[in-house]
Amino acid sequence: MSSSILRFAPSPNGCLHLGHAYSALATWDAAARLGGTALLRIEDIDTERCKPEFTQAIFEDLRWLGLTWPEPVMHQSQRLDLYMEAADRLLEIGLLYPCFCSRSDIAARATETDPDGAPVYPGTCRHLPPEEQIRRIERGDAVQYRLDVGAAMARVGVLTFTTVMPTVLDRPQVRYARPERWGDVVLQRKDTPTSYTLSVVVDDAAQGITHVTRGRDLDAITDVHVLLQMLLGLPSPTYHFHRLLLDDAGRKLSKSDGAQSLAELRAQGWSSQDVRRAVGF
């Protein structure tokens, strides 16, 4: 039990709100229950939206909540070469291919939606001839790289992973993964050599993460993470999916919808104990 390692991995593209506070406190609580360690990781691969001042604010908010973590803190922006190496391995075994489609192209041709309600990529570029791929890359067309999920599933066969619910101390349960629901997901984006889906798998393995605590909104995408772990020969952690904090309209609290930040609550006179009580800790 003492070897358990968990992580809280926010993106510094805005200020933390009560939903982040709940997720962080849930992670540290789970680590304490397991007699393990909670790590902080900064997922800052989005270089346009992620800012150093938001990273500093994350540190301040978490310390204000009374949380501590081992140093140094991993920053994904410093590990891009490792994500590229992982992508290259998938390319070498024929599971990664270039895609030149825009969002409007995909929306126009898609016939299915993924678990998040977005159009599933219809496979337009999956079988482009190599000479056509090279011609378009050399021409400077915007390109991203997708995982051939069908070929990947044929390679690995039946795919399962382990969850613990409703708490991290409950009896482990085995679940079947169905990554095909997502279609051929993007692993390398047009503006960065990686994606959340690829980098989170590489980093969890690098940090020896044994238990991943994440919101229920990330339940379905875990199927793709487990597939990548199998393809790259990486260990698969045990997963725990915690509840989400919702606004008055029943939507998950989010930065984009203007959820009130912890800094704003602090300025209004909230104490860290007020936050803990508000989110159930």
UniProtKB/TrEMBL annotation:
Record-level GO cellular component terms: cytosol
Gene Ontology molecular-function annotations: ATP binding; glutamate-tRNA ligase activity
Domain Glutamyl/glutaminyl-tRNA synthetase class Ib catalytic: 7-270
KW Repeat (keyword) present: no
PANTHER family: GLUTAMATE--TRNA LIGASE, GLUTAMYL-Q TRNA(ASP) SYNTHETASE
Keywords from the UniProt entry: Aminoacyl-tRNA synthetase, ATP-binding, Ligase, Metal-binding, Nucleotide-binding, Protein biosynthesis, Zinc
Enzyme class, UniProt record, top EC level: ligase
EC number(s) given by UniProt: 6.1.1.-
The protein's name: tRNA glutamyl-Q(34) synthetase GluQRS
InterPro entries, sorted: aa-tRNA-synth_I_CS, Glu/Gln-tRNA-synth, Glu/Gln-tRNA-synth_Ib_cat-dom, GluQ/Sye, Rossmann-like_a/b/a_fold
Similarity comment: Belongs to the class-I aminoacyl-tRNA synthetase family.
Record has Acetylation as a keyword: no
GO terms, biological process: glutamyl-tRNA aminoacylation
Transmembrane segments: none
